[in-house]
Design goal:
Elements (H helix, E strand, L loop, with lengths): L14 H11 L12 H8 L4 E5 L2 E2 L1 E4 L5 H18 L5 E2 L6 E9 L4 H8 L15 E7 L5 E9 L2 H14 L19 E3 L4 E3 L6 E6 L3 H10 L8 H13 L4 E3 L14 H9 L2 E2 L11 H11 L16 H14 L7 E3 L17 H22 L7 E3 L4 H7 L9 E5 L12 H4 L5 E6 L17 H13 L5 E7 L5 H12 L9 H13 L4 H17 L18 H22 L5 H34 L3 H26 L37 E5 L10 E4 L6 E7 L5 E7 L4 E3 L3 E4 L2 E8 L7 E11 L2 E11 L1 H7 L3 E2 L4 E5 L5 E3 L5 E6 L6 E6 L10 H4 L2 E8 L3 E10 L8 E7 L5 E5 L10 H8 L2 E9 L3 E9 L5 E8 L34
Helix pairs in contact: 3-5, 7-8, 10-11, 14-15, 16-17, 17-18, 17-19, 18-19, 19-20
Length: 993
């Protein structure tokens, strides 16, 4: 596994000591303000730091002129980075100085004579580095060559190894990989130094690590406006992309490919630049052999017409020779560059394979085998042994053909796609893992397509990314990881994490994904606020896991159940935004642009996207309820939220960083799927009347469903009091019992107000109590029934587990009473995964399925539950989506010693709208329901068994007759340890109430 070894010695790091140790060794990218003082570091290491800038002078950087151009170019970036930090520009030398006190010496083992002489003399320790893939060593060498007293040597096992060593040094002195792409400031220091400890960077976990720029209309717009007005993503933009990739320790790119972008090979500088930077360029699943079908096929077809003058169609069963020549031309053109060659075929522009003369699956398999054989011949003849890696991507319908018998040569890398929503569809079996070509993944952090697109913001939970990437690595998928990042901007955090995982898959564990966020935030904004920013991002991702802001629509979330489910969610967003503003106010001015791009805009934008649909839902309900002025108030609020959202994006594009990002962010592009726009609202004509209206929680209109209260959950319920007209209304509220408390007993209103009802439990009698709250006004009155179940303090103190109340039991899966490992498998907590604080995952992901004798063979979760009711009740397990198209996704549930019921989840990505797979990826959960029978009231043990590995459980709900239908699970039930004081978080206040 890749890891850092101070002084070359293996070290076992604890999580708490990790950052301290890495900082002390100089092996971690700098957390501004975190590294100890230079004298302390020197005392710890026993050697003085290596001074890069001091007393107004900078150390020169040497790289041999015969080294690889990628290394020479990166050495130039190091010179600029030193100047960014220290304000003094070093010299870039290609000949060794005759005399100097200090020198930075950069080179590649085997390509730099100076480096090779140091290795041969035993002066540079390259053990574990030489001969490896993209490895490097940074070491201070005393008197490395005549005339040089001391040198900081950065030596790579190959050209990219040297480049990564260079950029690692840049990050250690305070230059973030995102200094340009996210305007992260570089703090000036008069003295710039790095510790003298030897740092080795081992081989990465994954050989090829990169991105797919896709659905890139906004990036194209921005590039055309600000980078190259005569191009639509050209060399100047790709220079910036290549540099960012290398700073993130990536090495691979599928370039932009849509109609509104210039195809990569249109500008011949692009592949030349990529090779000069050291970036491997490939192409996506519909772009065989680096050909862009969107732009290139029609001109080729026009130049190679059929005998009758018509253009040939892109169908290998019709025009094999013309298509083969089309591929061959690009192979010949790009033969000199380090490339990745995509084999196989799909239709033009991400459409399905066209085969006029092959209509059945077996016939299409034969055609695909012929295509691959033809492409392999072409690569052998035009490129030769350098034609690697070659990849085959069984995406969408091609996966069906692969599973039906397509013969992919053993040295070709299989690239397994996810379902476009972050769930791996299929992973390699034993035979596929043994193939010399290895396996890779194509994974979406951004997506255009069915059932819904998410292109605007970075909304995939990092814990979800961690779970899936950890799973694929455990299945031997380590040759290539490619991430769809859309327009690149807004995916900064998710991309950083994905590249971090690809470089060292073991660095982050199930418990500490938020630690990555803290470290990452520290790199961008300094030590002081890193934990709070990490917590903000974690909560932002959690809210997106409940419902991506791009997926919001009318009527999804309830505005009448569970204390206004939608309103409580918006209250969480509101509080999160307050935290964002508090941090932003404390940051120095230089950090404001970066903070807006990386933290404020995503949180505020997601909040407003949800907010406008919340007010629109309230508007629709108000219309149903017959509200007067309040109906129009909600319409105004919905439209105001949309206007705020537009202003927020305008600020990004026109003000942030002086207008640098003009066009880069747009939720509503013209040619690709849009985020939800302005919701429709209705208004009512003004009526010169007033009238009393009442709608109690749990009811769209009226109060047929009583307000329910339990002494365990200490509930808080609302009653909306509203005016059916437009003139002022005087109203009163009278509780039917002295132990009922109201947030308001009356007043005057024009629109509406929300009255909260609570129980004074110290005064309420024990038992089941029925009473009312009476509302009156405008000569009308309405009674709201109230049902209170008070078991008393003694029963509360005796509770040992979750307690049924209000007709249900709601459990967060991570709040188990006991977990039992069996058969080499277990359940683990994955923090930050799912709709609450963490979910339970059955691991290892390679464990064999357990299909019988669960109590003896299957890993188990146990939850103690106290039931007040008896009967047969539905129990719903909220499992997080995961797929296995060659297997099953199952979990089993039982109560006490009763037989377990196996629940089978969706295992296949259909690609359809409205079916089970579509619902689960839109909701972020799949609800699997069985029944349990409670024969007598009291304590019982609810048991969850693993059937298939890698299945994750988020929440469990038992409906004993009172759980209303809602999008989210009910708030968690009372538990003496996990939830001893249940509280309904406040929702939003309605202005003007």
């Amino acid at each position: 596994m890749p890891h850092h070894e101070p002084n070359g010695q293996p070290t076992s790091w604890t999580r708490k000591s990790f950052l301290r140790g890495m900082a002390a060794a100089g092996a971690a990218p700098l957390l501004p303000g975190l590294l100890p003082a230079a004298t302390a570091r020197a005392a710890d290491s026993g050697r003085p730091d290596f001074l890069l800038v001091g007393e107004g002078a900078a150390v020169d950087v040497f790289v041999d002129a015969v080294d690889d151009p990628a290394v020479i170019r990166a050495a130039g970036d190091l010179r600029e980075d030193i100047e960014r930090v220290g304000g003094v520009r070093p010299g870039l030398l290609h000949e060794l100085p005759t005399k100097t006190d200090r020198l930075v010496l950069v080179g590649t083992i085997g390509s730099s004579p100076v480096i090779d002489r140091l290795v041969a003399a035993g002066r540079l320790d390259v053990s574990g580095v030489r001969g490896r893939w993209e490895a490097s060593v940074t070491q201070v060498v005393e008197r490395p060559v005549p005339g040089v007293r001391r040198a900081l040597v950065i030596a790579g096992s190959d050209r990219r190894g040297a480049v990564y060593g260079v950029y690692d040094t840049s990050e250690r002195i305070g230059v973030s990989p995102w200094y340009w792409w996210a305007d992260v400031p570089v703090e000036h220091r008069d003295t710039v130094a790095v510790p003298a400890d030897t740092v080795k960077r081992r081989e990465p976990s994954v050989r090829y690590r990169g991105i797919f720029i896709n659905d890139e209309q906004n990036l194209t717009t921005w590039s055309h406006r600000t980078q190259e007005t005569d191009k639509n993503i050209g060399p100047e933009t790709y220079k910036r992309v290549f540099e960012l990739l290398l700073r993130l320790k990536a090495n691979y790119l599928w370039p932009a490919m849509h109609p509104y972008s210039d195809f990569f090979n249109k500008h011949r500088e692009n592949p030349e630049l990529a090779d000069r930077y050291g970036i491997v360029v490939g192409s996506s699943h519909p772009e065989a052999l680096l050909r862009n079908g969107v732009h290139e096929w029609e001109p080729w077809a026009a130049e190679h017409p059929n005998a009758d003058g018509t253009p040939p169609v892109y169908d290998y069963t019709v025009n094999p020779a013309v298509i083969s020549d089309y591929w061959r031309a690009r192979a010949r053109q790009n033969a000199a560059y380090e490339s990745s060659w995509t084999l196989g075929m799909r239709g033009l522009h991400d459409s399905a394979l066209e085969t006029k003369y092959a209509t059945t699956i077996p016939e299409k398999v034969v055609v695909m085998n012929d295509i691959i054989a033809d492409q392999r011949r072409t690569l052998t003849e035009e490129v030769g042994p350098a034609a690697e890696p070659q990849i085959f991507i069984p995406y969408k319908e091609v996966l069906d053909l692969y599973n039906a018998g397509v013969q992919v040569p053993e040295d070709v890398t299989l690239i397994w796609p996810d379902d476009n929503h972050g769930n791996m569809r299929q992973l390699p079996n034993d035979a596929e893992r043994a193939r010399p070509g290895g396996n890779g993944i194509y994974y979406h952090l951004s997506y255009w397509g069915r059932p819904k697109s998410y292109l605007w913001l970075d909304t995939t939970q990092l814990a979800k990314v961690w779970q899936e990437l950890r799973r694929v690595y455990e299945h031997g998928v380590d040759r290539m990881w490619i991430f769809n990042v859309g327009d690149l901007k807004s995916i900064e955090t998710g991309l950083s994490f994905s590249m971090d995982m690809a470089w060292d898959v073991d660095r982050w564990d199930a418990d500490d994904v938020e630690d990555f966020l803290a470290e990452w935030a520290g790199r961008q904004f300094g030590r002081l606020h890193r934990r709070e920013i990490a917590a903000i991002r974690t909560e932002y991702y959690r809210l997106a896991a409940e419902l991506r802001p791009e997926f919001i629509a009318r009527g999804i979330l309830s505005v009448i159940h569970h204390g206004d489910e939608a309103g409580r969610r918006l209250g969480a967003y509101d509080r999160l935004l307050d935290r964002v503003r508090a941090v932003g106010a404390e940051l120095p001015e230089a950090y404001r642009d970066a903070f807006y791009e990386l933290v404020e805009y995503p949180v505020h934008g997601a909040y407003l996207m949800n907010l406008k649909y919340y007010w629109a839902d309230r508007n629709g309900l108000a219309l149903t309820q017959g509200r007067g002025a309040g109906t129009n108030r909600f319409a105004d609020l919905a439209e105001a939220a949309h206007t705020q959202e537009a202003a927020l994006t305008k600020r990004y594009n026109t003000e942030v960083a002086g207008g640098k990002w003009d066009g880069i962010v747009n939720p509503y592009p013209s040619q690709i799927p849009k985020a939800p726009g302005r919701p429709s609202v209705a208004r009512v004509a003004r009526r010169e009347t007033s009238g009393l209206g009442v709608a109690a929680e749990g009811n769209e209109t009226g109060a047929a469903r009583p307000l329910s209260f339990s002494s365990y959950t200490r509930d808080r319920r609302f009653v909306d009091v509203f005016n059916t007209g437009f003139l002022a209304l005087d109203w009163t509220a009278e509780p039917g019992a002295s132990w009922l408390r109201l947030s308001s007993a009356g007043g005057s209103l024009t629109e509406q107000t929300r009255v909260w009802v609570e129980v004074d439990w110290a005064r309420a009698p024990e038992g089941t109590l029925d009473t009312t709250v009476t509302f009156a006004g405008a000569g009308q009155s309405a009674e709201v029934p109230v049902r209170v179940v008070n078991d008393g303090e003694r029963a509360l103190r005796r509770a040992r587990g979750f307690v049924e109340a209000n007709g249900f039991v709601s459990i967060d899966a991570a709040h188990f009473a006991q977990r039992v490992a069996r058969g080499g498998a277990r359940w683990r907590v994955v923090r930050g995964l799912g709709r609450r604080t963490g979910a339970m995952e059955a691991v290892p992901s390679t464990a064999a399925a357990v299909t019988q004798d669960f109590a003896d063979r299957a890993p188990e979760l146990r939850y103690r539950v106290r039931f007040a009711s008896t009967g047969t009740f539905p129990v719903t397990v909220f499992r997080l989506p995961s797929l296995d198209e060659r297997g099953h996704r199952r979990v089993a549930v039982a109560l006490d010693d009763q037989p377990a019921t196996v629940l089978t989840g969706q295992s296949v990505a259909t690609g359809n709208r409205g079916d089970a797979w579509a619902r689960q990826v839109e909701d972020g959960v799949e609800k699997l329901t069985a029944t349990v029978t409670v024969t007598e009231a009291g304590d019982h043990m609810l048991r969850i068994f693993m059937v298939d590995a890698a299945i994750a459980v988020d929440q469990i709900v038992v409906d004993t007759g009172g759980a209303p239908v809602s999008y989210l699970a009910p708030p968690e039930s009372y538990h003496p340890v996990f939830n001893p004081e249940p509280a309904y978080e406040p929702g939003l206040d309605v202005p003007g109430q």
